[in-house]
Request: fold
Amino acid sequence: MNTTEQVVGVDDLTVSYRTGSGANARQVDVLKNVSVSLERGRVLGLVGESGSGKSTLAGALLGSLRSTSFISGGTVSVAGNDVFALGSAELRRFRINEVAMVPQNAGNALTPTMKIREQIAESLHGLRGDKRAQRERAEELLRLVRLPNPRAALDRYPHQFSGGQQQRIGIAIALASDPTVLVLDEPTTGLDVVTQAAILDLLLDLQRSRSMSMVIVSHDLGVIDKMCSDVAVLRMGEIVEFGGVRQVLGSPGHPYTRGLIASVPRIDRPGIPPSLDHQALDADAEWVQSDEVTLRVAPVDAPVVLSVRDLSVDYRRRPVAGTGPTVQGVSFDVAAGEIVALVGESGSGKSTIATTIAGLQRPAAGSITLAGAGAAAGAGRRAAGAGGGAGSAARGGGAPLAATVARRSKAERQAVQLIFQNADTSLNPRKSVEAAIQRPIDLFKVRGASVAGALSDVELPGSYSERLPGQLSGGERQRVGIARAISAQPQLVLADEIVSALDVSVQSSILRLVDTLATSKQIGFLFITHDLAVVRAIADRVIVLYLGRIVEEGTVEQIFANVSHPYTRLLLDAVIELGDEHSDTLEKVADEVPLAPPEHGCPFASRCPIVRDVCLTVTPPDLAVSETHHITCHATLPELIHEPAFVAA
Amino acid sequence: MTLLIARRVALSVVTVLLATVLVFTAIQLLPGDAATQILGQNATPDAVATLRGQLGLDQPAIARFFSWLGGALHGDFGTSLVSHQSVGAEVGRALVNTSLLAVITIVVGITLALVLGMVAGLLRDKWPDVAISTIALVGMSVPEFVVATVLVLLFSITIPFFPAVVVAGQNATIAELLPSVTLPAVALIFVLSAYIIRMMRTSVIDVSDSEFVRTAVLKGNSLGRIVFKHILPSAMLPTLNVIAMNVAWLVGGVVVVESIFNYPGIGTLMIQSVQTRDLPVILLITVLSAVVFVVCNLLADLISIALNPRLRHSRSAR
Ligand SMILES: Nc1ncnc2c1ncn2[C@@H]1O[C@H](COP(=O)(O)OP(=O)(O)O)[C@@H](O)[C@H]1O
Ligand code: SF4
Ligand SMILES: [Mg+2]
Reply:
């Protein structure tokens, strides 16, 4: 077989849909004159911001468009087939034999009412009718993608697996038909870093051993850099740059590519990166993005606004043998104007802690104390019950907050505000921006606050007050969410994954906004995220959480320096960044978090590379690296030293 | 899960009991009782009092309710105050006739509705969908008595093909009734299927747009497999509750439609009994209606559990 044989050829492809009716009818191009090609055994990356047409192009390779879209020019050829010229029977044969797709979010792509075995067997066309052979092959495929307990998995349904496991199953199904070209749409978006690293390593292994051709869609430049040999950069339906991955990402020729690369936050570089300036780019094709970062300055000697002591939360209705409560023994402070990041994988209890502080979840033990005005109002009411030693850290002389919102005073509720990940689901789609922001102002009778003021605080034009959430972009909606929270003039804002769903360039503009607001309004932020690069950019201090227990706490420099808890180190190693060597695969650690924390000992013991006997039975001690840097571990300091994640500039 | 089912069954028994109490009370609140209805306007108070004593109506209401309940638990539902026959036998005969109508309506109606809803959903916006959706919309907006009346007029006057009004009395045999079932059944099916068609269409469309159906298509599956393995089980789930609600509605719809066609079933008997204040008959019919209602909902829940792996296997099984 010729090694330079072309397996994918997209030639001058334009995909459009019609919108409006009558005189307003017009044709919108989702893809405009797109041409890319891929040789056998190579990996093509499609990168660009959301809405740039990546998924459309990926679908076109399988002859699939949205029902309202159509081809208005060009051809797609895959493995020698002119895809859009195929009749329906030929198209089916083409999909069976030549291509397979791992869709974005495998959880939604598995049929909920069918067993995993059946869903794999559908793609085992060679073994049609032979139930036993199908079973064996299906089990083999699940083992190949390293799904734990593959035999038992065959007879389960999709909802019985975690997100990472569903993704593996999606890949196993795609591999079942042994495709010439494998198309993966955002294969690891939404997964935790460690799971992501494990799945990408797995895909690279498979690709190399089978010399499969792959097309990977991603908005993550690090992932593209690690996985691909070629890359096409899309912007608003057009390819702005196409070539070898080292060349395009190493020395980008197009200003858009350069701007995109500059807006990615990195764990090896402090500061909030600049955002892409689309207007400047549209006005001047030769425009050069500055790569100046915004450096965050931590407040000095600021008063504490929130102090959490020995917080435990237990979701279990009755004790389950061998497991402990979901969150246990969590203590930390947040000072005025300080941004404290709470990091950990999904299920580590980040949101549980935030909702408990907000009074939406009842703690099993511990105290939450708020300083200043909010607590003063509460102090009189519960003067007798206050004064437990725990609250002493709050210098404002605050009293512990009541466990549920219903029992908190208005001032206390005003002082703590929440912002959620999905601004689109937390804003009422039928209420205007003005109504959303006005509500807390009226509710708490905030003096000196106005919708116009809040909008200008979040850098949105005043005219936006008339709009409905549906008329806003993702970044704008998140700004409205922030405006609503700060219009209550809180002391503390709990921000739960507020930038996770945004494109990098929008993400950095929101990060700059949070930085400004924290400093200018002296609001303490508890900033929840699973993204370490975001932590590096925005946080003053960092709390690393694993299975609901704090494993490490320190200033942002200390967390990213060379002494770390083994779990923090695993997280740091798993991060994939643009320009890394990508040579060393992650040490083979279990990449799945256990379902529940153990009853005794260290929560990380089941995955720790330097675990010892004592870790299984005794709660690890607090190891003070310095006054501000604490690690909870049985190991000795020298054992926790490693290569720093970045070299100081 | 066994616990869940046991709880649902217990709840159902309570529902049936409450329905009986409610109807019993409602009848007490109506002006007049069986004695005044039987003897008519001009009866002397003495005659009424004597008849009351014979019928046991002079007992306090609570005592009568519990004596009825005690008998009912042993399968003795008393004797009709009007015909003096055993209520069980009288209602039983009507029940057989109504069951004939109901079974035909349910089997034909649901099958038809599911197939039409599915076809409309799969061929969204094409002419079969437009036709089916329009008919369903008419069925939803026109009440059953209008449909029934139109059918009576149409068939008794314009095309006297089916017997429009049943002449056979309460004691007609099934063979005698069979031709007369057609028109009442058509009227009921028309109204019954409308909501089911709409729901089925909507949920087939929703499921067809889902990511997992797209994936099934991209795997190169045949159309039959995509429809029957990937779309239908998920599309059936929300439809089931609508089916249960409509079958339960049938209990009320039957009363109206039967009386328009003079069909000798439970509905007609019910209306007669209300007119004569024949409490034991009314009570038994109430119990039966409540049982049907409750069983429908119970069945819908059980089928959902069978169709939906999420309900069968808890998340913790991971
Ligand atoms: N048939 C269609 N009707 C309306 N909008 C469409 C249609 N097809 C694509 N789009 C729009 O085109 C843009 C590109 O979509 P997509 O390929 O999903 O981008 P990406 O995967 O890069 O996020 C999006 O804004 C999408 O909403
Ligand atoms: S306490 Fe033990 S198991 Fe836990 S991180 Fe330290 S060495 Fe590893
Ligand atoms: Mg996409």
